[in-house]
From TrEMBL:
Taxonomy of the source species: Bacteria, Pseudomonadati, Pseudomonadota, Gammaproteobacteria, Alteromonadales
Ranges for domain HTH lysR-type: 6-63
Natural source organism: Lacimicrobium alkaliphilum
Protein name stated in the entry: LysR family transcriptional regulator
Single GO MF annotation: DNA-binding transcription factor activity
Alphabetized SUPFAM superfamilies for the sequence: Periplasmic binding protein-like II, Winged helix' DNA-binding domain
Length: 308
């Protein structure tokens, strides 16, 4: 019978050292001494007879072999976590707390009737509803810290149920120079104007989505902040149509017709990061979400007014 040379704790320490960029920060995150982490990684390398890390300056970097081993180790620790969550789910009748991660782009008015239906049968479960953006939403799935995730992108290896469809449009103030240019606006013109960007909620953001070529960008944490700035004549921004439809109808903002990209359509999905460990409360909430899905219709503004 095969006996492993290494432990899960060693692999978790290696992952923390890499994710935190060094032993000092990893030690603070894990509440362990730096020397114990050094010893654990050194022992791991000796047991495997493979160099996984090399230290340059104050930072630890993965070797090529380390990159391969680390990637496989993440699957291992994730599988163990899912197995333990499954056991916990089997042993309890109803989860005491449910975490719902909602991408900031998802229209909150669609969520309110869901929660109204869920509440009478929630059996006192504490519900955490957390706003996430871009990589932060993806991490809620891949790191498994949420029970249900409403997202605009399903990561590789996961399944999702489509629940809504929406559009992102570029907007600015009517007096902004971009609004006065002949339509369609040349995308190269955008590079010379202030772009407002919504902050990624991940601790390690990865800006890999959307147009981000402007030489000057301001980052804000909420759509409403971007809208308020544009109402003052500052910048342009891509936003969900339902968030700015009323401002467009009131002629306080205008929709930009950009050559090659008049709008971007996004399908919103419901994803279960740990489907095998889904408790009865989370299942009930999922059923309520599906009962109110709006995938057959493009989401309009909360006032149900079409944008001009």
């Amino acid at each position: 019978m095969y006996r492993p040379k290494t432990t899960l704790e060693q692999w978790r320490i290696l992952q923390a050292v890499v994710d935190c960029g060094g032993y000092a920060h990893a030690a603070a995150k894990l509440n362990k001494s730096q020397s114990s982490l050094n010893h654990a990684v050194a022992k791991l390398q000796n047991q495997l007879d493979v160099q996984l890390l090399e230290v340059r300056g104050r930072k630890a970097y993965l070797t090529e072999a380390g990159e391969v081993m680390l990637r496989r180790s993440r699957h291992l620790t994730q599988n163990v976590q899912e197995l333990e969550v499954l056991a916990e789910s089997i042993n309890q009748d109803w989860e005491p707390q449910i975490t719902l991660a909602v991408d900031l782009a998802y229209p909150k008015p669609l969520l309110y009737p869901v929660l109204k239906d869920f509440y009478p049968d929630s059996r006192g479960s504490r519900l955490r509803i957390l706003d996430t953006v871009i990589t932060g939403t993806e991490e809620a799935i891949t790191q498994g810290w949420a029970d249900i995730v409403l997202t605009g992108m399903v990561p590789k290896g996961y399944l999702g149920e489509p629940i809504a469809e929406m559009q992102f449009i570029a907007v600015c103030h009517p007096e902004h120079p971009l609004a006065k240019m002949p339509s369609p606006v040349d995308p190269n013109e955008l590079m010379h104007h202030l772009q407002l960007v919504i902050k990624d909620t991940s601790q390690t953001p990865n800006e890999k989505q959307g147009w981000l070529k402007s030489e000057l960008r301001w980052t804000v944490s909420q759509f409403d902040t971007a809208i308020e700035l544009m109402l003052q004549g500052l910048g342009f921004c891509w936003l969900p149509e339902h968030k700015v439809c009323d401002k467009i109808n009131q002629e306080k903002l205008v929709k930009l017709d950009i050559k090659g990209s008049s709008f971007r359509k996004m399908v919103m999905w419901m994803v279960h990061p740990r489907p095998d460990g889904l408790g009865p409360g989370s299942q009930l909430l999922s059923d309520c979400i599906l009962a109110h899905r709006q995938i057959k219709h493009t989401i309009k503004s909360t006032e149900e007014q079409p944008c001009k």
